[in-house]
Design a protein that fits this description.
This protein has one domain: Rossmann fold. It has about 280 residues and is α/β, with parallel strands linked by helices. It has a nine-stranded mixed sheet, with helices on one face. It binds 2-phosphoglycolic acid.
Amino acid sequence: MRGIGTPACGVPLFLFMSFPSIRVFDSRDVAVRELACEVSELIRGRAAQGRLVVLGLATGNTPLPFYQELIRLHRHEGLSFANVVTFNLDEYLGLAREHPETYWSFMHRHLFDHIDVPASHIHLPSGTLPEAAIPAHCAEYEASIHDAGGLDFQLLGIGGTGHIGFNEPGSPKDSRTRCVQLDEITRRDAAPAFGGLEWVPTRAITMGCGTILAARRIALLAWGTKKASILRAALTGPITEQVSASFLQEHPNTAFYLDRSAASALEARRETCQVS
Ligand code: PGA
């Protein structure tokens, strides 16, 4: 595991459980460098074989430093995204695509406009379709992921409700891309960016839990004490539809990349984990 334990990267703490792996870093910068290193090796390895790689991407504050690191690798270390195909987790319903808070805008602003991923390789659910067209669009999104060969890698954050994507409490483990109602906690968390709760959409299209869990590799990122208690529920609580991130406990190739603050409620339970 490149970079781990080197003075430049600090010394992450590993909590060994069956799975997923929990990787605790001194800072989010160190964590995202480590993850970007893994993802860049995946991209370069596929490029060397003349093959595409399929990345599932996420929005929110959490992945921002990861995207900054990918842009740095592109600008300064020659990493090309020409062989990368992307599928975003979700999109708000009811906003024009160019609205600054759509995930389409977010992804272009924070990543796509700064790298060489071909526009035709970029996929996000559409938030502007007439009601009657939404189910077919969701089915097409699933089919596109399948036709691309499935998700090689899925990036995740975790919401205050424990959601992954917009899979709010009550989302079945086998759910697929669909239209969902946003939880009030999620809407309140988004309210500052929209300038008030009344401007936050009430619905979205999201990949389902089943769509996400089919990814061959998953990395969930979380920073700060605000995420500590929901991470504890997701990682040490029951596997339940009430916390969709808890389904990751059963995924065989998931890593949680946490800073020390986000991991603080887990570290309080060291007696139940081996720590190195
Ligand atoms: P955040 O959102 O990265 O802005 O905290 C995460 C999420 O809701 O999945």
